[in-house]
Amino acid sequence: MATEAEEPDRRDFLVLAASAFVAVGGAMTLWPFIQQMNPDAGAQALAAIEVDLAPVKEGQAITVLWRGKPVFIRHRTPEEIAVAKAVPIKDLVDEYARNDALPEDALATDPNRTKDGHENWLIMVGICTHLGCIPKGQSLGDAKGDFGGWLCPCHGSHYDTAGRIRKGPAPRNLEVPVYSFLSGTKIKIG
Amino acid sequence: MAGHGLPHGPAYEPTTAFGRWMDARLPIGRMMYAQFIDFPTPRNLNYWWTFGGILTFFLVAQIVTGVVLAMHYQPSAAAAFDSVERIRRDVNFGWLIRNLHAVGASMFFLAAYIHIFRGLYYGSYKAPREVLWIIGVLIFVVMMATAFMGYSLPWGQMSFWGVTVITNLFSSLDSIWKGLGTTIVEWLWGGYSVSGVTLNRFFSLHYLLPFVIAGLVGLHLWALHVVGQNNPTGLEIKTPSDAVPMSPFAVSKDAVGMFAFMLLFCWFAFFLPDYLGHADNYIEANPLVTPPHIVPEWYFLPFYAILRAIPSKLFGVIAMFAAIGVLLFVPWLDTSRVRSTKYRPVYRWFFWLFVFSAVALGWLGSKPPDAEYVFWARVFTIYYFAHFLVVMPLVGWFETPLKVPGSITEAVLGKEHGDKKLAPAKS
Questions:
Q1: From edge to edge, which strands make up the β-sheet containing A121-125?
Q2: Is A95 exposed, middle or buried, given 0-12, 13-18 or 19+ CB atoms closer than 10 A?
Q3: What would the pLDDT profile of B4-38 be if each residue is shown by its tens digit?
Q4: CA–CA gap between residue B298 and residue B106 (Å, rounded)
Q5: Alpha-carbon gap, residue A136 to A134, rounded angstroms
Q6: pLDDT tens track for B200-231
Q7: Is the CB of residue B427 less than 8 Å away from at least one CB of chain A?
Q8: How confident is the model at residue A8 (pLDDT cuts 50, 70, 90)?
Q9: Distance CA A43, CA B265 (A)
Q10: Which of chain A's ends, N or C, has fewer CB atoms near its CB within 10 Å?
């Protein structure tokens, strides 16, 4: 069997072809077993929801469930908006808007965190960007942190009235999901 | 472990530093080499011997697809049926994995039946392979329990009523001791009827038993490698020329058999996934309505036919279990001096008559219990048992076997080659 090192022979070709066949076949067989763990059609069907904002008065906030995650919807007061607008970008921990509707490098100005003409509505995924807890600040009696927005009780991250991280271990601003106004008081998230 | 003492390829020599380090601590590579690379395999194995490998493949495949299905399946009376439908429609590739599992069960049994008939034909149960054979029968029994509980999980009408009928078999014990059967049945059910509680425990056991099978398969292989493989001549390996190393010879032959069987498997899984099941199982379980005609899965049909052939409830149940239990005694029921049916001109006819009876019982089991069908089921049930209890002992005693070759080599290469001491086949 052991011949001197020469030209590749028929056996070499067969071994190579068979190995390639096994590798491709194996990968193709493996794929369904990996893919099956991804969100299924049922989960994807729940990917968009509609929310009526009419009952939410100025200064109030509601939390809705979207893709299994809480979404904070805050009807901001003019003072809160003014405070948020007054913050210079250089004072921010995370200077990017984290708004899924905008390019990744959009700056975290207050207009970039809301929609034109609807700047009284701040809509964000209510999951702390540190380790996934839900920050306090939705209910009237909640501690809202040093910047009047939200305070995460797990590790003390403070968010301002535009949902931007200002103090604490969280690395990023709260995520703004893709949403659109269907009418003056109705939105579609997702 | 092999008692042949037949050196074959070069001795195991770890080629890397890590291999040598490991070999001095846990010589698993040395064991794998001795048992699955260099293991002396009879040189005359035919394709019927590839089913052991095929069965190993199916055990692994059923465990892998089953673990995946358990990630999506919900074992409760309220959610089970819908969760199976969700697997088929919503889960990514759920249709594929579910089909592979359901069809895989059928293919597993098909391969097991071929494997069992091969053992019966070539006398693979005869000394010194009795323990090997008995472990095989135990694997078969646990396989049936696993498949039965697995079939309950989709919680369709056939699932529900199949479980009801089969668990009720134990109520026949009431005629031996009043209340015994009912007590057992209620214990199995966890209630006074089949319910979500029953489903929950069957799911748990359905997940457990395949690992019991895997353990038994380990023992089966161990026993096999102690006594060595039987072969179409039924002769033991006596000289090096009777054997070839398992790799690449037996391994590549196994691969050919495996690919052929996989074609059949894939044909069913992709084109006829529901052919081997029953349409009524796509109706959700309803404890108030029994389907007009209850049939088990095809692989239980012969035993179902035996159950129905006996007019007494208790004896029907006993006959059904005895039909499997009798296999345990086959090593001692067969009195022939010759192993392989190849050299048994009389027994050969009875063997095929037995195969015919088993298949006929399977067909009759799928038919409604009308008079004609029951009559023939009785005829074949009688032969089923007579084959083991009468034919095997008697034919072995009076039959004159054909001349058996002197060795495996002689059977393969003819007399003159057999006389020379051939060198072992080189790898």
A1: A61-66, A69-75, A121-125
A2: middle
A3: 455 556 788 999 999 999 999 999 999 999 999 99
A4: 8
A5: 7
A6: 999 999 999 999 999 999 999 999 999 999 99
A7: yes
A8: confident
A9: 31
A10: N
Is A32–B93 a contact, with Cβ atoms under 8 angstroms apart?
yes
* pLDDT (tens digit per residue) in B84-121: 999 999 999 999 999 999 999 999 999 999 999 999 99
Q: Does A40 touch chain B (CB under 8 A)?
A: yes
d(CA B133, CA B118): 12
Contact predicate B293/B102, CB 8 Å? no
The set of long-range contacts for B82-88, using a CB threshold of 8 Å and a minimum separation of 24, is: B84/B153, B84/B154, B84/B155, B86/A40, B86/A42
Beta strands A157-160 and A61-66 are unpaired
- A96-107: b or e for each residue (b if 16 or more CB lie within 10 Å)? bbbbeeeeeebe
DSSP letter for each residue of B289-305: ---SS----GGGHHHHH
Chain B residues whose beta carbon lies within 8 Å of the beta carbon of residue A41: 89-92
In the 3-class helix/strand/coil scheme, how is B77-113 assigned residue by residue? CCCHHHHHHHHHHCCCCHHHHHHHHHHHHHHHHHHHH
- CA atoms of A109 and A162, how far apart (whole Å): 9
Which residue has tokens 């135990």? B138
With an 8 Å Cβ cutoff, are A36 and B86 in contact?
no
* Nearest C-alpha neighbor of B304 from the set B294, B292, B312: B294
- Tell me the two tokens of residue A188: 């579609």
Contact flag B86-A38 (C-beta cutoff 8 Å): no
The answer to whether A1 contacts chain B (CB < 8 Å) is yes
**Where in the sequence numbering do the catalytic residues of A fall?**
155
DSSP 8-state symbol, B284: B
Separation CA B190–CA B198 (nearest Å): 6
pLDDT for position B425: 54
- Chain B segment 80-99 residues within 8 A of A by beta carbon are 86, 89-94, 96-97
Q: What whole-number distance in Å separates Cα of residue B197 and Cα of residue B77?
A: 8
Preferred mutation among B93, B96, B426 to probe A, highest tally of A CBs within 10 A: B93
Residue tagged 């088990």 (tokens):
B296
A140 half-sphere exposure, CB direction, 13 A CA radius: 5
Beta-carbon neighbour count of residue A6 at 10 Å? 7
The angle, 0 to 180 degrees and rounded to 10, between the axes of the packed helices B130-152 and B157-168 is 130
**B64: nearest CA partner in chain A:** A33
Beta bridge partners of A51: A187
What's the rounded Cα separation, in Å, for the pair A132 and A62? 19
